[in-house]
Sequence to fold (346 residues):
Amino acid sequence: MASLPPRKKALGSKWVYKIKYHSDGTIERLKARLVVFGNHQIEGIDYTETFAPVAKMVTVRTFLSTATSKNWELHQMDVHNAFLHGDLHEEDLGVLKYFLGIEVARSPHGLFLCQRKYALDIISEVGLLGAKPAGSPIEQNHRLAHAKGELLAKPESYRRLMGRLIYLAVTRLDLSYSVHVLSQFMQHPKHEHWDATIRVVRYLKGAPGHGILLRSDSDLSLQGWCDSDWVACPLTRRSLTGWLVFLGQSPISWKTKKQPTISRSSTEAEYRYMAYITCELEVVLYLPNYENVSDLDNIDLHVAYNMRQYDDRFEQFKLQIARMERNLPAFSAHIGITPPSPPPLM
Fold:
């Protein structure tokens, strides 16, 4: 036993037991691990930042989309080791069918990714298997930021459910906005926020098997679509940015994000999201799959905007576009009030 440092508190722990399965559903082995109650830590008191050395899902989806387009074989591996400096023992589990809670189905049309089992587990956990499905995940013109109800007696239930919905959005583009809105209230959730989260679960009840299709006939043209909503947050008055990136006809990256600073005009908000989507395109381009940029057929950026004024910030954005066009010969930007429609998801 060791003494605690001054002004520090001890965290509890528990044993977690898990059954690990083979790809055919049979039991491989039983696992047990002692874990610390990290959820009892408070930001700014027990920690200041977090870091997890895991791959971004954008990287995973980009790799799978490329493999599908090039008709590569996909196998899944299991590494029998949980320590950074231990010996690695890899096992081939066969053709990729299920990984990280994501179900994979391959057909002549492409690779379909969904989290049906995970979604049904969420619905079952909340007790809504017999509930009537909702037509949309969140109400239009909601006022959740101005909720006046009482705080939840057990906010841990809200945080657990939101954590599961955040991971479900890995294959559900339709949850991006609602999950973004509801995750802002995880620290002090109220009854109105819980009811809105239950609505999301009821929406899942209508189609738990929805997902994304990475098409096999898709080319390697990179397209980005973005838009913003000026001063969308009624509390902070910050603007909301949304983007969607396609590799050919396959969606690989999407996000709804509140801008970090207040924009003094809708024009300034437009400039900011232009920069965000440009950076996201560059991230995809610098993945190992595309070290040779000539592998990409085309790189397009589509921007929807409503410019009411023109100033030097637009010139700064044009300089950024010019830099990408200079470094990437296949890159081109299309900026207009009425952009073409994005490709279908299915």
